[in-house]
Amino acid sequence: MTHPDQHPETIAITVGRPPVGSGAPLNPPIALNATFHAGGSVGYGRYGNETWEALESAIAAFESGDTLVFSSGMAAISAVFSLLPIGSVVTASHQGYSGVMTLLNSLQTNGRIEVRFVDVANTEEVLEVLPGTALFWLESPTNPSLDVADLPTLISAAKNMGCGVAVDNTFATPLIQQPLLMGADIVMHSVTKYFSGHSDVLMGSLSTNDSALFTRLEDARKIGGAIPGPFEAWLALRGLRTFPLRFERAQANAMELAKRLSTHPKVAKVHYPGLATDTHHGRAKSFMKGFGAVLSFTLHSGLAQADKVCESSTLITYATSLGGIESLWERRRRWPNESFSVPESLIRLSVGCENIEDLWSDIEQALRNA
């Protein structure tokens, strides 16, 4: 499962390979099978797939927990919430991935669960509302304002209270933090983002080191049917081979752009925990191994100017999503389901692997045109 003597770059290249043998292929095949002869371990195409398993073993090596892949990140998230009994209490961030917030609000409106929304960066507030929580859904850094939760403290406290803990680790990735090793029960990834890295795959994953919980999640995938396609799984595994290299470059670019944006006269505030001036810098530095490749910033002017900035780029793509090899940005409040705690003019920038000077030149001209 784990590779204690190997570094992430090596793990990414070596895990999920077929058995070594004379004439054996280096890469796993795309297993296009829905039906299997009786007597085997799979039984039916919705229950398992050779290509999924290769990708799952690779993600498992990074997150130190058995892994299941799903047809999308939301499919993985929905599988987690499907395990909760009716009336369960879920505590979650009041500012995070909008898909999760929309789903939680829908489940609450339908009487399925009770949701307690909190500021996950406010440790005292979280600890006050955690008692009675069945599942604590954590996202840190948060999307899109890059707030940082005190994961070691909150995970430990939640487990001591008997709460289940699930962490969306998409922004940070296991290169920065490994929540299962902090005591979390589940780690979720939008595999679409950094693991795949090329904006051409929709997929999600769940990792856990609790065997009973793994079986329940696997059953939820079987019955719910949210399975990934073999070709998509193969693409995701191919993308993962360069994940540490892409992330290292993108993270370095993000740090430099955050510094430059923080001194630009049209920028009111930059949200990036790598900046020494960021509210969350000290906390992030205390347990995270890096600061990620996503930043956000607000303008002194309003939403119309923020839209104009995004529309004026010629290199950075104006689109929603993140974690690809290319840089993307957008004004997040253009989406009606975005949290009202997010400023109207906030632009989220997913920094890619382009040349830093080319990126900065594009940002400068976009700000100038706005």
Walkthrough of the structure:
This protein is of the alpha/beta class. It is 36% helix and 16% strand. It contains 12 helices and 12 strands. The protein has helices at 8-14, 50-63, 73-82, 98-109, 123-129, 151-160, 211-224, 230-240, 243-261, 281-287, 303-312, 356-369; strands at residues 66-70, 88-93, 113-118, 135-139, 164-168, 186-190, 204-208, 267-271, 294-299, 317-318, 328-331, 347-350. A 7-stranded mixed sheet has the order 1-7-6-5-4-2-3, sandwiched between helices. Strand 2 (88-93), helix 4 (98-109) and strand 3 form a beta-alpha-beta unit. The termini are far apart.
Structure characteristics:
36% helix, seven-stranded mixed sheet, 370 residues, globular, 12 helices, 12 strands, alpha/beta, five-stranded mixed sheet
| Largest sheet: number of strands, sense, barrel closure | 7 strands, mixed
Instruction: Kindly state the percentage of residues in helix.
Output: 25-40%
How much is the radius of gyration in Å?
A: 21 Å
State the distance separating the first and last CA atoms: 51 Å
Instruction: Label the overall shape.
Output: globular
**Helix run count:** 12
Element string (H = helix, E = strand): HHEHEHEHEHEEEHHHEHEHEEEH
- What is the number of strand segments? 12
Query: What structural class do helix, strand and pairing data support?
Result: alpha/beta
The averaged pLDDT comes out at 96
Q: Unreliable runs, pLDDT <50, ≥5 residues?
A: none
Percentage of residues in strands: 15-25%
**Which sequence of strands runs across the widest sheet?**
1-7-6-5-4-2-3
